[in-house]
Amino acid sequence: MITRAPVPPALTVPRGVRLGYGVGSVCTATFGTVPGLLLLFYMTNVLAVPAWIAGMVAFLPKVWDVVINPWVGQRSDRTVSRFGARRPWMLLGALTLPPAFAATFAGPPLTGLSAAAYVTVCYLLTATAYAFYEVPYKAMPAEMTGDYHERSAILQWKMVFVGLAILLSGAVAPMIAGTTASGYRLMGLVVAGVLLVSMLTAFFGTARAPVVIRAEAEPSLRAQFAAARTNRPFMLLLALSCAQMFAAGTLLAGAPYLATYTLGDSGATSTLLLCIVGPVLVTMPGWVALSRRYDKRGAMILASVLYTAGAVALVLTQEFGPVYAHACVLVIGVGYAGLQLLQFSMLSDVIAHDAAVTGRNRAGVFTGLWTAAETVVFAFGALVFGWLLGAAGFVESDAGALVEQPEAAVRAVLYGGTLIPAVVAAVSAVLTWHYRLNEEELRSAGA
């Protein structure tokens, strides 16, 4: 039975630090949204890359995350500098990610396989640069405070900026990109500028961040994986998060296709994204309140159920039209807001619990593995969707061509972009039911 949690103590992390840390999430949200939303469509409908190959291009560079992210986590655990352990790596990411991102969407005069090869190389460099920033960035909340509810409150600030970033990037990036190579080139430059400002703000804004617990590094990548395997709460949280990320990756990759081939309006991509991320801005306090009343596990189950229900209902879009579709996506957005907040808050809990039980704080270990799995599985959603389109006979095109798609491909767009996310989100709800790390258990462990 889920019981009420006691009222949490007041926040102690300085407001300026919480604000600076929160602004840094503009980078993570923008980078997660724009490639997930536009990269597959960019390749199939602008660069004339076959759908199954485009799915591979979106996925394979993320496999590299399995190596680079844990390595960055290990190195940042060991780093000693006047900037602290995490911030030097964040600065390195700030200097390398924007140019790599802009190059990915530079739109060179290439199509087909040569264009796919170019995007693969650029996206691999982008994934590497992103790891430099994201892994240490996610490790910081667990080191700023040892309080169960304060971590949620810090992350509430983060999620406000996540909502703003996804709202702007999800709506504005498709409008800038349009359907031309020059539009995508301009979009890449604009987003690169946003990434740079966000990361530098986080670097300078967290200069006074408290370090309650200092992380310790594992001696090797093999030891990192061993540490993760023996931590049951982490493995269960990782599994349910991967299910949620796969659902989100599939849904996001399918959104431009749903707008173009189901709703018959490519411009609806922006409004669909507004419905997904708009609730982040207005429902976050509600999700924090629910997590305090019914604990984080109960709130996450509710969020998963809402996500699943909205995705299942979206199947009937052809029968009920665009307004109905946007209403369904709005329900998905409410659930998505809860999932985003609670995932990160529960990860901080797992790190704190591990430190209390083992006497070692391995924040970089867990965030490195977490970020690697998260990005790989998110990209796997695009891969599966791309393969589904390829199997259904989707016809690729360049920016100036209008191609009539076979009926099988149109059906694949609708069902692949709705039922696959719904089923996987339902699986995440089942996994969440078995997650048992709560405030009482953390307190008994001394966390």
From TrEMBL:
Source superkingdom: Bacteria
NADP among keywords: no
Cited InterPro entries: MFS_2, MFS_trans_sf
Keyword Methyltransferase: no
Keyword list, A-Z: Membrane, Transmembrane, Transmembrane helix
Transmembrane segments: 21-43, 49-68, 89-107, 113-133, 154-177, 189-213, 234-259, 271-290, 299-317, 323-342, 363-389, 409-433
Protein name: MFS transporter
Organism for this UniProt entry: Planomonospora corallina
Organism taxonomic ancestry: Bacteria, Bacillati, Actinomycetota, Actinomycetes, Streptosporangiales
